[in-house]
Design a protein that fits this description.
Pfam families: Bac_luciferase. GO terms for molecular function: monooxygenase activity; oxidoreductase activity, acting on paired donors, with incorporation or reduction of molecular oxygen. It comes from Rothia terrae. One of its GO terms (cellular component) is cytosol. The protein is an alpha/beta fold. The chain has one domain: TIM Barrel (Alpha-Beta Barrel), CATH 3.20.20.30. Helix content is 43%, strand content 16%. The strands form 2 sheets. Strands 1-2-3-5-8-9-10-12 form an 8-stranded parallel β-barrel, surrounded by 7 helices. Strands 6-7 form a two-stranded antiparallel sheet. β9, α7 and β10 form a beta-alpha-beta unit. α2 runs parallel beside α3. The radius of gyration is 20 Å and the shape is globular. It starts with 18 loop residues before the first strand and ends with a helix. The N terminus is likely disordered.
Length: 356
């Protein structure tokens, strides 16, 4: 395992200001009359959403990778490259890059290119992916799910050192003193996305990569043992503590009632579609309200959402919080208003609450 330093120029975690981001999977949406949009229009809308996030002061904009009909984005780095040239300050990254079914060298090259285009604002969030359509699509055996991620993460950890690469393990062609281009100016910032596996948490510490926890249901506080495990692992490895982030779904409108009314049907539709594929029972209004009240669904007015985010940040000791603002077929117009409220009202309120 490579032990070279990653994520150059990071300050100590206790000196890092809280970062507030937004994530989208490019969910295929409907218009305000309920008519489905073409995937091409959805992609154009994602670009517009990222540009708005930049203008209203959001710190990070992440785009996920999927290969299925209910998500329009299969190549997030292409959209991120477009945003790199049409935004000024926001950091741009994946949410996530499915490393197991990709080539680590090409992943590095694409994000190093985005980093150059954006003036050092690129981030890559690496994960195994909660959906598996990419494996047969690109010729991989799902039986190798764990093996593929382990081998490719090891290779990626060597590539990002930006030193000549020698590589023999695995099924790919061996490399000897191979240079990989382009090099970044200040290193490529990375995260490992984890859904709740202790082994994955420890692995992130072993590779000295910041931890991104995907919390999509239940109280966020139940993930405190994973944060504590990550910190213990860093201590036991004799290294500095590294940032911890959370990704969770939500929606913001001017009032609690409006936010819930806009989201409820689309959240239930999305949850039941995925649930049918995974053998879950159907959900409904009761579970929606429970997640909004007690779980990891951040829905409501700016003050309601800010209060809940601030509590999660305090409970888990976070350095970043990313709101997954796209929710199934929720219309683009509602998401644009949510982005505006997140940047102009929620983020300032969260920071004020934490300062107090």
């Amino acid at each position: 395992m490579s032990t070279s330093e990653h994520n150059k120029n990071l300050p100590p975690v206790d000196q890092m200001p809280l970062q507030m981001g937004l994530d989208t999977f490019g969910d295929v949406t409907v218009d305000t009359d309920g008519n489905p949009l073409h995937q091409a229009q959805v992609i154009r809308n994602v670009v517009e959403q990222g540009q708005l996030a930049d203008r209203v002061g959001v710190d990070f904009f992440g785009i996920g990778e999927h290969h299925r009909p209910d998500f329009a984005v299969s190549a997030p780095d292409t959209i991120l490259a477009g945003l790199a040239t049409t935004t000024d300050r926001i950091h741009l990254g994946s949410a996530v890059t499915v490393l197991s079914s990709d080539d680590p060298i090409r992943v590095y090259q694409r994000f190093a290119t985005i980093d150059a285009m954006s003036g050092g604002r690129a981030e890559v969030v690496l994960g195994r992916g909660s959906f598996t359509e990419s494996f047969p699509l690109f010729g991989y055996d799902l039986g190798d799910y764990e093996k593929l991620f382990s081998e490719k993460l090891e290779l990626f950890s060597r590539i990002v050192t930006e030193e000549p690469l020698t590589w023999n393990p695995g099924d790919r062609t061996s490399l000897k003193n191979q240079e990989i281009y382009p090099r970044t100016e200040n290193g490529l910032k990375q995260w490992i996305a984890v859904g709740g596996s202790p082994e994955s948490v420890v692995r992130a510490a072993q590779y000295k990569i910041p931890l991104m926890l995907a919390i999509i249901g239940g109280p966020a506080s139940r993930f405190k043992p994973f944060v504590d495990l990550y910190k213990r692992a860093n201590d036991q490895l004799g290294q500095d503590q590294l940032p911890v982030a959370v990704h969770s779904p939500g929606h913001i409108a001017d009032t609690d009632e409006e936010a819930k009314e806009q989201l409820r049907e689309h959240w239930i539709t999305n949850r039941n579609r995925i649930g049918r594929e995974r053998g879950w029972g159907n959900t409904g209004v009761v579970e929606f309200e429970n997640e909004a009240q007690h779980g990891s669904l951040y829905v409501g007015s700016p003050e309601t959402v800010a209060t809940k985010i601030a509590q999660t940040v305090k409970d888990l000791g976070l350095n970043r919080f990313d709101l997954k603002f796209s929710n199934g077929p929720l219309p683009h117009e509602y998401s644009m208003r949510a982005i505006e409220l997140y940047g102009t009202q929620v983020i300032p309120m969260v920071r004020e609450m934490l300062d107090q």
